[in-house]
Design brief:
By secondary structure, the chain is α+β, with helices and mostly antiparallel strands. It has 2 domains: 63 residues, Roll (2,3-Dihydroxybiphenyl 1,2-Dioxygenase, domain 1); 60 residues, Roll (2,3-Dihydroxybiphenyl 1,2-Dioxygenase, domain 1), CATH 3.10.180. The chain has 2 helices and 9 strands. A hairpin with a 6-residue loop joins strand 4 and strand 5. The longest helix is centred in the last third of the chain and has 14 residues. It starts with 15 loop residues before the first strand and ends with a strand. The mean pLDDT is 89. This is VOC family protein.
Length: 146
């Protein structure tokens, strides 16, 4: 492989996550409740297909994370399935295992089912907390060991 003379441009992190959901209002309520997100008042039209859908944008006031929940008129309402081509899951980083423990308490208080914290040693040390949104999209909170 030849070495490039140009340096790769930087990536600043994830800007937003945009799933298509079956009920945009129910999902917006759920994501606001779980993650403390704030709703941008106006819906966003789908660029190039403004007549067939829109998105509700939620933002985190403490980070750059945004979640755009998409409604498409053609959506037949089927549940998400990570075994099909497309998204498998979304993992959000938390600073440490103690933060995961705080998330367990938070999700329990909200009545959100989760798998509990799993500590892994391979292929490297990390801890993860897995749960699902109303459309069955797997969400993970992920903490590196250390």
């Amino acid at each position: 492989m030849t070495q490039s003379k140009t340096q790769r441009p930087t990536i600043g992190g994830i800007h937003h996550f945009s799933p298509t959901v079956t009920d945009v209002e129910a999902s917006a309520d759920w994501y606001q409740r779980v993650f403390g997100l704030e709703r941008v008042p106006a819906p966003f039209p789908h660029y190039g297909s403004e007549d067939s859908g829109y998105a509700i944008l939620l933002t985190d006031p403490n980070s750059d994370l945004a979640i755009g929940l998409h409604h498409h008129d053609a959506n037949k309402g089927e549940q998400f399935d990570e075994t099909r081509t497309g998204l498998d899951h979304l993992a959000l980083s938390v600073p440490n295992r103690a933060a995961l423990e705080a998330w367990v308490t938070w999700l329990d208080e909200l009545g959100i089912p989760h798998a509990g914290i799993t500590d892994m040693q391979e292929p490297f040390e990390y801890s993860v907390l897995v749960f699902r949104d109303p459309d069955n999209i797997q969400l993970e909170l992920f903490a590196m060991a250390g």
